[in-house]
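<goal> How does this chain fold?
<body> The protein record starts here
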Amino acid sequence: MSGKIVIPVVSLILVVGVAIGVVVVVHKNGEDPEMKTQQRSVQIICQNAEDKDLCQDTLKSVNGVESADPKAYIAAAVKATTDSVIKAFNMSDRLSTEYGSQDGGIKMALDDCKDLLQFAMDSLEMSTNLVRDNNIQAVHSQTPDLRNWLSAVISYQQSCMEGFDDEKDGEKKIKDQFHVESLDGVQKITSVALDIMSGLSNILQQFNLKLDLQPASRRLLAEDIDNEGFPTWFSGSDRKLLASMQGKGWRSKVVPNVIVAKDGTGKFRTIKEAIASYPSGNKGRYVIYVKAGVYDEYITVPKTAANILMYGDGPQRTIVTGKKCFANGVKTMLTATFANTAPGFIGKAMTFENTAGPDGHQAVALRNQGDMSAFVGCHILGYQDTLYVQTNRQFYRNCVISGTIDFIFGISPTLIQHSVIIVRKPNMNQFSTVTADGTAEKNMATGIVIQDCQIVPESQLFPVRFQVKSYLGRPWKAYSRTVVMESTIGDFIHPDGWFPWTGSNFENTLYYAEYANTGPGADVSKRIKWKGYRGIISRAEANQFTAAEFLKAGPQSGAEWLKAIRVPHYLGFKA
């Protein structure tokens, strides 16, 4: 009886197999339109990706009618990035619970990671909202914002990694586990999203979508700027305030929201109290006047305190000071005397210093991650790691910045203009490097640009300036990007100009360039011969590093936000 049953079953299997084969053939020969559209779309979207396999895998969730919409693929890339950051955040929380009580250094690093990954999620939330609420043409016009926010995600991920001390076995073990299981994924998937956004113009043209390719600066002047030079979204009270802060005697024209004075003549005696007074739901500028005095306090402007304008009685008179340092067991990020995490912050006529000295090793005076922030007429003083330009678009003008090793460092789009950069005397057997940019992926919108600055030695360094080696910079990460242009470079800068990062081969992937510099240190004939060193670049190539291009915001071509806040600047070249 069992033999009689087997034959029909086998026959049935064959029939079903033939039926399936027929279905497959019909679909194959008929070329399922949705599948064909999806495959072709992914091919176009991923053409600019370094890791095409990961890109295609990231976008495979897009199907159905969405497969013909390029915006759906951008949304999918942002969502995948968000999912990877959430996974990393949850892992940092779990690791903190498991290991935090055993080791104070591990707990400090993991707590910092949670804060940083939360900032990354904030950037991704803005990205998600922008893509969701706009058509593809509007998304394209705001590519600078999306690239900035996505670059910030990698910056926060890198900052999290840097918080662990590789020389301590416990911390290194946790770091390696964290990296392999989640943090590496954050960088790779975010890089895919950046690759897509960097090639968006070409992608949309291949989708046969009509784009407005007119220079955004013309559109801005026609549509977004009123006859006073302010963007239309800038409040009337803000325009009046910022316009009043010009020329001699401007302080007498400004009415601050609060005054800080150590002698009790203001509303508060400490800057920390003044920032804590920031009103919930504030929409306009919140102006804090810090009277002359030395303020020995550690300050963090929270991300919710947007658009603070803080000014003092001049950098020689209003001084914020601290001395936290890595040598005393404090993580680099937490050594900052003054830290700003809020967008739209403006600091004016003040000093921010870290007095730990060269023996303190990493000791940050100012850490800034506020998007579209500016510091004007400020002194930022320290030794190693003085100015931490952590992430997001930043501008510095008429400042004095001093230090020794990597004293301008970070992973952000930063432009330092018309300032004095002072190299100090380091400890014996040390060298000095002005910059250490941490751009980690090719299409990140980050880098350090020094324009129309004087790069000089301090008086203590001057007599031994040829014995102590000083360089323009060294590459902190693989795609380090630094440009020095229209600046005066002193004779103490080593003829090599740039110094390698120990144990790396970043010399092949970095981007270092110089343009229209003067002074005895500007001679490039004996500069290093790295693949990534461009030497003196053309004016056309240098143009991408002017404020108009390098600090783009939204659909605005050029740093119109600098115009809006009436910060003095060059949008283009000095000459």
